[in-house]
Each structure stands twice: as C-alpha cells, then as structure tokens.
C-alpha cells in the first residue's frame, strides 16, 4: 500500500494546478451532487445496486458524496482523511454494497472533473486531471482497504459464532432450530405465511469425485453467495450439511407470491460455477417447499415435509418443468 501511496503523491505542477482550480470546482459543487442524487434514485429502484438501502441510508450516501467532493479538492492530504476513507469502505461493507460501488462513485467524480476540464487549455488540463485522478485512486485504495478489513472482521466473528456455518458464513442448524419457531410465531400473530424450502444439487457428489473436496467447497461458497444475493435481508438462508440448504421466507401472503422470486433464483442458480480460470461446473438444483400455516405442523414437521417435496421433485427431474415443487401438490 505504501508503494502505491508514494506513486500517487502529487508533483509540484499537479499540486499547483489543483490549488488554482479548486475554488472554481468548489463553487460548482452542487452540480455533481445533483447528478449523484439522480444516480442514487436510479440505482435504489428494484434490482438496482442500492435497492437494499433505506431512504435514510440513500440520503446519507448523498451527504457523504458531497463531503468527499470537498475532500478531493483539499490542498493537503491528512491522516484524518485517510482514516475517513477507511471508515467509508467499512460502512459500504456493513450496508452490503458490492466493491463495485467504490469504483462507481469514482467514475461519477471523474466524469464531472472531465466535464469541467474540457474547456481548459492542454497545459492547464493535463496537470489538473493528473492531480484529480491521483486523488481518486488514493481514496479508492483506502476505501477498498476499509472494505477488506470489515470483511475480515466479520469472517473472524463468524468463525467464532456457534450459529454460523464456518465454510459459507450462513446460519447453521442450531440457528435454524432457534429462529424458525420464532418466524412461525410471527406469522400466527400477523396473519401471514412462512415458506420453508429445502434445496440441494441433483449430483453434488460428482464435483467432489471429479475435482476434490476443495473445489466442492468452492461451489458451496458460490451457491451460498447466490442465495444471499437473491433473497431479502429478512429471509433466512441456512446450510444444514454438505449441499443441504434451507430457506425460510416470511411475510408471504399466498403461494403465487413466490413464483417471481423462484424464477429469478433459477436464473441465478443455472449459471455455471467457477472452479478455476479455465474450469466451470454446472449441475441442476432441486427444491421442495411447504407453506405454513397451510401445512399446520411444527418447525421440524415443516422441514420434513419440505424434504419430502424435494425428494418428489428429484424423482421426477427428467419430466419436470420447474426446479421446485410444493408439499401436498
């Protein structure tokens, strides 16, 4: 990191150009802020990169962007600014934003700076843009460092947690035994339904036999990430054992509500899994679902019924039109 920071130090000409044009850039700070606000509104719609954020979080992003704009134009780079960029990266991780978001914000800054510099002469534009790009790369690096440190911290916590699966970071059986009955209680109080699903690969053993358990574990980690990404934050994703996963989806009003989610999930799960730069592995997945309180049994009964539905789906996999089936149907 230190080598990169040394490389990104401004030359005298670059520092002079930044100091000369910083006042003009600051006077037009509202322009990039409004453009960023428009992007946040677009990306916070369903399916967008920011769709999981609350209204307050989106507003905080806009405030952070405006503050960052001013910091990019500061005459001196201080240790305080470095620490703030690390904190920003940490926040992005805790909010569940992908690392790509850090690059996205930098691209938006760069587009604004380029628009400003377009009318300058080449001797003016070259050192100014070099200075601004160095500032952007510097802050990207520290934000990515904050993001990495936050991820490392969470992984260390997960490894120590008795309710987490060490391999995937998902909830484990102990967590399911504790949380599923609570979800059923909420459904009874609220008059809603809970979908309990069991899923696994149709032939997971083949990847272990052909390529070894290390690459088999890699497939399970990729599957876990796809399930996390496809479902809502309020849904439970659990790994019981090997490739045996459980999903618990709350606030379901009728079975038809699940169809769009399952269709999106199938598209995600049909994508081949990456074993190496040159090796992909693909295998169908089957899922069995039961719906509480239509299936009015306790938590363990729901898990058994979902497993039974899973078995029926796998038994008919050559004739099936969809990868999932419902208990009792």
Topology:
Blueprint: H1 2-7, H2 12-27, H3 30-43, H4 55-72, H5 79-94, H6 100-117, H7 122-160, H8 173-190, E1 193-201, H9 205-211, H10 213-230, E2 236-241, E3 244-252, H11 258-269, E4 273-274, E5 280-281, E6 285-292, H12 299-315, E7 324-326
Parallel strand pairs: 6-7
Antiparallel strand pairs: 1-3, 1-6, 2-3, 4-5
Helix pairs in contact: 2-7, 3-4, 3-6, 5-7, 6-7, 9-10, 10-11
InterPro entries: DGC-Regulatory_Protein, GGDEF_dom, Globin/Proto, Nucleotide_cyclase, Rev_trsase/Diguanyl_cyclase
GO molecular function: heme binding; oxygen binding
Protein name: GGDEF domain-containing protein
Strand order of the largest sheet: 2-3-1-6-7
- What's the CATH architecture of the largest domain? Orthogonal Bundle
CATH topology of the largest domain: Globin-like
Using only CA atoms, what is the Rg?
Answer: 25 Å
Secondary-structure-derived class? alpha+beta
Instruction: Tell me the number of strands.
Output: 7
Global geometry: elongated
Order of helices and strands: HHHHHHHHEHHEEHEEEHE
CATH superfamily of the largest domain: Globins
**Overall pLDDT, averaged?**
90
* CA distance, first residue to last residue: 58 Å
């Amino acid at each position: 990191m230190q080598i990169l920071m040394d490389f990104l130090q401004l030359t005298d000409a670059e520092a002079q150009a930044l100091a000369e044009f910083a006042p003009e850039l600051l006077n037009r700070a509202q322009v990039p802020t409004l453009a960023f606000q428009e992007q946040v509104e677009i990306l916070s719609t369903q399916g967008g990169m920011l769709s999981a954020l609350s209204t307050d979080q989106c507003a905080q992003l806009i405030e952070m962007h405006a503050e960052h704009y001013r910091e990019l134009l500061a005459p001196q780079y201080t240790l305080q600014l470095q620490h703030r960029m690390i904190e920003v990266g940490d926040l992005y991780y805790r909010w569940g934003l992908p690392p790509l978001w850090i690059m996205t914000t930098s691209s938006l800054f760069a587009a604004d700076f380029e628009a400003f510099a377009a009318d300058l002469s080449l001797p003016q534009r070259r050192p100014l843009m070099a200075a601004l790009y160095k500032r952007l790369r510097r802050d990207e690096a520290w934000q990515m460092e904050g993001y990495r440190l936050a991820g490392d911290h969470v992984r260390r916590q997960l490894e120590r947690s008795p309710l987490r699966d060490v391999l995937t970071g998902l909830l484990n059986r102990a967590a399911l035994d504790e949380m599923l009955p609570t979800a059923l209680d909420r459904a009874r109080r609220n008059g809603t339904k809970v979908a309990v699903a069991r899923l696994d690969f149709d032939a997971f053993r083949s990847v272990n036999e052909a390529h070894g358990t290390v690459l088999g574990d890699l497939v399970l980690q990729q599957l876990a990430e796809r399930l996390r990404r496809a479902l809502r934050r309020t849904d439970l994703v659990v790994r019981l054992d090997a490739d045996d996963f459980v999903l618990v989806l709350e606030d379901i009003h009728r079975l038809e509500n699940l169809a769009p989610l399952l269709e999106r999930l199938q598209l995600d799960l049909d994508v081949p899994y990456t074993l190496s730069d040159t090796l992909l592995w693909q295998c169908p997945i089957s899922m069995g679902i039961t719906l509480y309180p239509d299936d009015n049994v306790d938590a363990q009964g729901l898990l058994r019924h979902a497993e039974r539905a899973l078995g029926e789906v796998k038994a008919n996999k050559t004739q099936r039109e969809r990868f999932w089936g419902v208990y009792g149907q």
